[in-house]
Amino acid sequence: MKATVLVENHSLFNKFYNAEHGYSAWLEDEHIKVLYDTGYSDKFIKNAIELGIDLRMADYVVISHGHYDHSGGLKYLIKYYEENAMYRKPVLLMTTPDIMLPKYQFEWNLPLGMDVSMEVLEKFFEVRFVSEPLWLTKNLVYMGITEITNDFEREFPQSPKILRDGKWEDDYVDEDTQLAYRHKNGTDVSVFTACAHYGICNIMEYAKKLTGAKHVHTYLGGSHLRSDEVSQHQMEKTCEYVKNEKIDRFYICHDTDLSCTLQLANAWPVMEAGVGLVVECE
User: Fold this and answer.
1) pLDDT digit string (tens) for 246-273?
2) What is d(CA 233, CA 145) in angstroms, rounded to the nearest whole number?
3) In the chain, pLDDT over 90 holds for what percent of residues?
4) pLDDT for 2-26, tens place per residue?
5) Which residues partner with 93 through β-bridges?
6) Is 145 helix (H, G, I), strand (E, B) or coil?
7) How far is CA 205 from its chain centroid?
8) How much is the average pLDDT of 198-218?
9) 3-class DSSP state for residue 93?
10) Cβ(2)–Cβ(27) under 8 Å?
């Protein structure tokens, strides 16, 4: 199994790829290819071309949640398909229809939700809403809605609001989803996240439960740990979990600020992630 970071907040040293505040990754296992999120713009497409990845070969496009820095690139992907003779419809996987609801950051006066209608999506994708786990290959699983197993993550809603039934409400980003890979030894699992709105500890525990694994070998993705939005209690408990899990490869990237990254690195070694990173799992 191989995962390639197409867009992230940073590019790896001396790689000269496009970076932005967003996330996109390309996962390959057996004969299946998965595009996981699309970043904010068309940068993930430019990077994919430079990396020799043909996005038309995606069997699945997974949108982790409705925020613009993960779904904003969909309109550019559609344009790319139109301009490059896309001859089939990939499966577009999302957990619930709530992902389509408007989201707004009132502090910035900025819409943050998906900006492609369902009518347009259905022209180019086979749209499926799947809230339960779905095995894409023998060992690669789309995790669906994450099971909550601790009392210290998801303490607070996100600052952007969600429009539901005509009212702006607090948003915990309940639609968020991830992918996990069960290693061939049967005891390890690798976890691939975007923003990790359910919390990295909840997500890793759920990945172990789904795959029957005992240990997280690789974590790659964001953590949604930012010092202006996370309590010290959550930070301490997260660091304790990470230290006890003894993750072999701990790639923390998108949506994690420097203060929280340093605290995580003090608990357990953090490896550098960025656009162009390729991670392979046995």
Assistant:
1) 999 999 999 999 999 999 999 999 999 9
2) 24
3) 93
4) 999 999 999 998 889 999 999 999 9
5) 62, 128
6) coil
7) 16
8) 98
9) strand
10) yes
Residue 229 has pLDDT above 90, yes or no: no
Q: What is the phi/psi pair of residue 113, to 5°?
A: -95, -175
Tell me which residue has tokens 């209608």. Answer: 117
Beta strands 158-164 and 167-171: pairing type? antiparallel
Supply 246's token pair: 């003894």
Query: The tokens of 214 are what?
Result: 């005992």
Q: CA-based angle 4:249:138, to the nearest 5?
A: 60
pLDDT at 119: 97
Domains of the chain plus CATH, in order, are 2-280 (3.60.15.10)
